[in-house]
Amino acid sequence: MYCIFNAAEALPCGGDSQGKKSKDSGTSTFYLENDTFTGTDSHYTSGLRLTWVSPDFADYRERPLVPEWGYPLVEKLPFANRSGFHRHMSLCAGQNIYTPEDISRSELIKDDRPYAGITYVSLGSHSSSSHRMDSLEFDLGIVGPHSYAEQCQAKVHEWIDSTDPQG
């Protein structure tokens, strides 16, 4: 189960307090998946992702979204030159956590998923029409202890007064 919050949809009357339309500032999305919603700590246990998607930059030369020195970069983006398509870029930060079914055990369980985590950032290029969407996303992340998945999972289990994961 997951929860998505789209900041552009939360703006009153399609704009912010300065009268700027939400489509001009892009869209921010908060995405949360956690097995707390379904009652099991098995395999994929949690996902957290904060994403910003740019406004359509099809007319980037007429709008101040991209500085002039960036035009050659935009023109080389995948999917950037399709006529009739909307074009967007996205920036994201997130974390995924994976656990074995039995979180009370700390040793490797040979026939179960090991504890794992990844914390990442990503950059994406997207092109869409009313019937098709193409996306290319580059993710850069860190796995293992420096992903801080263990500490995040332990803190959530502390907050919800649940079994302390031993991995």
The chain-level mean pLDDT equals: 76
The number of distinct β-strands equals 6
- What kind of assembly state do the chains in view correspond to? single chain
Helix content: 10-25%
Largest sheet: 6 strands, antiparallel
| Strand and helix order | EHHEEHEEEH
Shape: elongated
Description:
Helices cover about 15% and strands about 35% of the residues. The chain is of the alpha+beta class and about 170 residues long. The protein has one domain (about 1-160). The protein has a 6-stranded antiparallel beta sheet. A hairpin with a 4-residue loop joins strand 5 and strand 6 (about 135-145). The longest helix has 11 residues, at about 150-160. The model is unreliable at about 1-20 (pLDDT under 50).
Summary keywords:
4 helices; 6 strands; 15% helix; alpha+beta; 167 residues; disordered N terminus; single chain
Spell out the blueprint of helices and strands:
Blueprint: E1 2-6, H1 7-10, H2 22-25, E2 27-34, E3 43-53, H3 71-76, E4 86-99, E5 116-128, E6 133-143, H4 149-159
Antiparallel strand pairs: 1-2, 2-3, 3-4, 4-5, 5-6
